[in-house]
Write a structure and sequence with these properties.
- The chain has about 325 residues and is an alpha/beta fold.
- Strands 1, 6, 7, 8, 9, 10, 11, 12 and 13 form a 9-stranded mixed β-sheet that branches.
- It has 8 helices and 13 strands.
Length: about 325
């Protein structure tokens, strides 16, 4: 894994021994597709198909603010008493990692992502970003981290990697350490059954999942709990949260979440699916825009009560591991 210096994250990186090395250029090159910027290495190797531009960074920051409300301003879910080493898998714009680093200045926070393009210029002194593909086996020491977060990495995990990915997390945790995992299942649902296979939102979901199915497992979020158990974790708890796509709920807190989500629905639909639909299954851009426009209109209709299921799971490495 490459670690890098915040002084100039466009061209040079610092490894864990504080020496300065050149970053492999493959991690720096970008391509533009229909006005969006992507990391060339990631899309050409089917690692992930999300943009890495300013628009995407803004979307992730907005998503982080939604999660702050959704999780009652609690960045850490499990009952962790002391944080000395934390691992943030798929840090993106690093909003969560920075929050942990700033709230716990004596904690070493390590972030791993395939792309550095959305990382802010100013990094907390105790936050170390690394560049790597999460589909590769981890090289961290065993029994190392107090907490590992994996959030919204489903679009970057290969479909046959999930079991070993969670096994790697398990091995990297200290005995008694915790993992928290958060993933959307992007099959649009309705709280009153109004969304059917003829709905644009459902058509978007089906098209997106078919486009990535050769590379990723869009249904993996529903299996996280069983994979935690299979890896040997204890005290496993899982919850599905229906995240509203507009302000249709009656509950004031949920209504606010839906209102905020409504502001980024179009950005989310476009970011997730633009590359897979237009480049992998060759949907015409006019057809893509039409589908997203119709799906966005349905998401904004409070009568449909649309939501995306969000799966949240925590698990602890036993003090005496069984494997």
């Amino acid at each position: 894994m490459f670690a890098f210096s915040p002084a100039d994250h466009s061209s040079r990186h610092r490894d864990s021994r504080e020496s300065t090395t050149d970053v492999d250029p493959r991690y720096l090159h970008t391509i533009t597709v229909h006005g969006r910027e992507y990391q060339r290495h990631a899309v050409e190797n089917a690692i992930q198909f999300l943009p890495v531009d300013e628009d995407e960074s803004g979307r992730l920051e907005a998503q982080h603010r939604i999660f702050d409300i959704l999780f009652d301003e609690r960045p850490v879910f499990p009952p962790v008493t002391t944080l000395r080493r934390v691992l943030d898998l798929g840090y993106g714009s690093a909003a969560w990692g920075f929050e942990i680093a700033n709230e716990h200045p004596d904690c070493e926070v390590t972030g791993v992502d395939i792309s550095l393009h959305m990382l802010p210029e100013d990094l907390p002194d105790n936050f170390e970003p690394q560049i790597d593909d999460l589909n590769e086996r981890f090289t961290f020491p065993r029994d190392h981290f107090d907490l590992i977060q994996s959030r919204l990495v489903g679009a970057g995990i290969n479909k046959n990697r999930w079991p070993s990915y969670i096994q790697d997390i398990f091995k990297s945790l200290k005995p008694g350490g915790w993992c928290q995992m958060v993933e959307y299942y992007h099959m649009a649902q309705s709280d009153n059954g109004s969304i059917t296979d003829t709905s644009a939102l459902r058509q978007w979901s089906i098209a997106y999942m078919r486009a990535i199915d050769r590379f990723k497992d869009p249904r993996a979020p529903m299996q996280i709990q069983s994979m935690f158990n299979a890896a040997g974790m204890s005290n496993v708890e899982s919850r599905m949260i229906p995240v509203p796509l507009c302000s249709w709920p009656n509950d004031p807190r949920e209504k606010r979440i839906g209102e905020m989500q409504g502001h980024i629905v179009e950005a989310t639909l476009r970011s997730l699916s633009l590359y897979p639909l237009t480049q992998k299954v060759h949907m015409r851009i006019d057809d893509f825009n039409s589908l997203v426009d119709r799906a966005k209109a349905e998401a904004a209709d409070p009568r449909l009560k649309a939501y995306f299921p969000l799966y949240v799971c925590i698990g602890q490495k036993p003090l005496v591991a069984s494997r």
